[in-house]
Design a protein that fits this description.
The complex is a heterodimer of chains A (about 130) and B (about 325).
Chain A (H helix, E strand, L loop, with lengths): L15 H12 L3 E2 H12 L3 H13 L3 E6 L2 E6 L3 H17 L8 E5 L5 H18 L1
Antiparallel strand pairs in A: 1-3, 2-3
Helix pairs in contact in A: 1-3, 2-3
Chain B lengths: L2 H27 L10 H34 L29 H38 L6 E4 L5 E5 L5 E5 H6 L2 H16 L2 H12 L4 H27 L1 H14 L3 H5 L7 H9 L11 H19 L1 H11 L3
Parallel strand pairs in B: 1-3
Antiparallel strand pairs in B: 2-3
Helix pairs in contact in B: 1-2, 1-7, 2-7, 2-11, 5-7, 5-8, 6-7, 7-8, 8-10
The chains are: A alpha+beta (about 130), B mainly alpha (about 325).
């Protein structure tokens, strides 16, 4: 699977069905709309057309690539799950970090980029405190 | 122009003037009233009050003006308008303001409404996008409970979600911490959710729209720092301050990699958090109420101005219009 640059707008949101389809394609690449519908559409009570539309939407978002075999398109992931997750994290944390934009209504616990002397100074303080409390 | 538009213009002037005064007050005075030794819960309360100020102050003044005008119409207040000269602006519903509005006034009002609308729309769009991205990330994470694991090596944890609050923690972070340290990180994130911090932050961010940009940035930093320190305190109560400080230092060590360097620091200053956990200086939980007293007194002064300085206010408006 090739990774590719993920457009900003594709990271905006993925619906539940889009995620379910992506999940399936990651596990089982090269499926047609009919095959995809058989695996997840029937249990959800949705039509083949709905699955087809979802696949096309993901293709337009550059998350899936397709090849024509006979009369039908077969879909494979263009982006790995890890790459998509990493891009989402980068985007969310970047949004959160920017002082001029509104924050994500969430909290991010993330390692800050401290230099080695600063880290050692903090560790030394912790060590002193532990020794004092013994 | 219709009389009601002239009254609207007067109200706009009053609201804009009060907004500016309260926004500047927030910017200049508040940081000085939030010493670091003060308990983070008290700091967040004061910050929230400060965030409300540019919203409440103009509203309070307008309500006060309307109450007085209404009181005059109903005969509860003496009709002081008889002492006015004809060209003097009136803040009442009976005598219409003697102001000649022109295209300039209409332009100012239009610009003000448009800019306000743009700010609010941009805020809503931004928050919606972030919420959708968080939801997508949650759906891609492993697990379906309140705690989900992200398949990523970046040492990171999120606590968020407005409709379905949950904690996302990466494999990279879990692999780098001991089981005990992982529990501390998890407890910290859960402390944010238990205290409704995501929802409070959303409200706080919305309120910051009415603040001057440089002040909004400063208030935001103080807010995040306070919320993080409050969560640290809650977790420290269970695991001990040294254990929490040690875990934070470990997380900082884990983060010394190229990818983290590309992402800017998020949220609160970790060095300040760690030093605060390790310091022996007691935290001020006792409130001296100076801030709250000044706040209420200021609002009372704004509310009473139309009653006690009615004529002065009208004279000022008159001067602004060349009367």
């Amino acid at each position: 699977m090739a990774t590719s640059h993920i457009e900003q707008n594709t990271l905006r949101s993925l619906g539940d069905l889009e995620i379910a389809v992506l999940d399936l394609i990651w596990r089982d690449p090269g499926l047609s709309a009919k095959e995809t519908h058989k695996k997840i559409g029937e249990t959800r009570g949705i039509s083949v057309n709905t699955v087809q539309s979802t696949l096309e939407r993901l293709h337009r978002k550059q998350l899936l690539e397709r090849t024509k075999k006979g009369h039908a398109f077969h879909y494979s992931a263009r982006v790995t799950r890890e790459r998509l997750v990493a891009s989402l994290i980068n985007d969310l944390v970047g949004r959160f970090s920017s002082d001029t934009t509104s924050s994500l209504a969430a909290f991010v616990e993330m390692a800050d980029q401290l230099d080695e002397p600063s880290l050692q100074a903090l560790e030394s303080e912790l060590k002193n405190r532990r020794q004092r409390s013994r | 122009m219709a009389a009601w538009t002239e009254l609207l213009w007067l109200f706009f002037l009053l609201a804009a003037g009060t907004w500016l005064l309260s926004a500047v007050t927030s910017a200049l005075l508040v940081p000085a009233m939030l010493p670091e030794r003060l308990s983070p819960d008290i700091r967040t309360r004061r910050l929230l009050l400060t965030a409300w100020l540019p919203w409440i102050a103009p509203l309070l003044l307008l309500v006060s003006v309307c109450l007085q005008a209404g009181g005059k119409s109903l005969g509860f207040i003496v009709d002081h308008c008889n002492f006015h000269e004809d060209h003097h602006p009136h803040l009442c519903f009976t005598h219409l303001p003697a102001i000649d509005l022109n295209a300039f006034h209409a332009l100012v009002l239009t610009v003000a409404v448009t800019v306000t609308g743009l700010f609010v729309t941009r805020f809503i769009r931004r928050e919606r996008m972030a919420a959708e991205q968080f939801r997508t990330l949650s759906a891609l994470a492993a697990g379906r409970q309140r705690l989900r694991i992200l398949d990523d090596e970046l040492p990171i944890a999120f606590a968020g979600g407005l409709r379905q609050p949950l904690v996302l923690i990466s494999r990279g972070l879990l692999r780098g911490l001991t089981r005990h340290e992982g529990r501390i990180v998890l407890a910290h994130e859960c402390a944010h959710l238990r205290h409704q911090d995501p929802k409070r932050s959303l409200l706080f961010e919305f309120l910051l729209l009415a603040h001057l940009p440089f002040a909004a940035g400063r208030l935001r930093r103080l807010w995040r720092q306070s919320l993080e320190e409050a969560a640290d305190d809650r977790v420290a109560g269970r695991f001990g301050r040294e254990a929490v400080a040690g875990t934070l230092i470990k997380v900082l060590r884990l983060g010394r990699g190229p990818r983290v360097g590309r992402l800017a620091a998020a949220g609160a200053d970790p060095t300040q958090r760690i030093r605060r956990l390790l310091t022996a200086t007691p935290i001020m939980h006792r409130v001296l109420w100076r801030f709250e007293l000044a706040y209420v007194t200021g609002l009372a002064a704004i509310g009473l101005t139309p009653l006690l300085a009615h004529h002065w206010l009208e004279t000022l408006i008159g001067l602004l219009h060349g009367h």
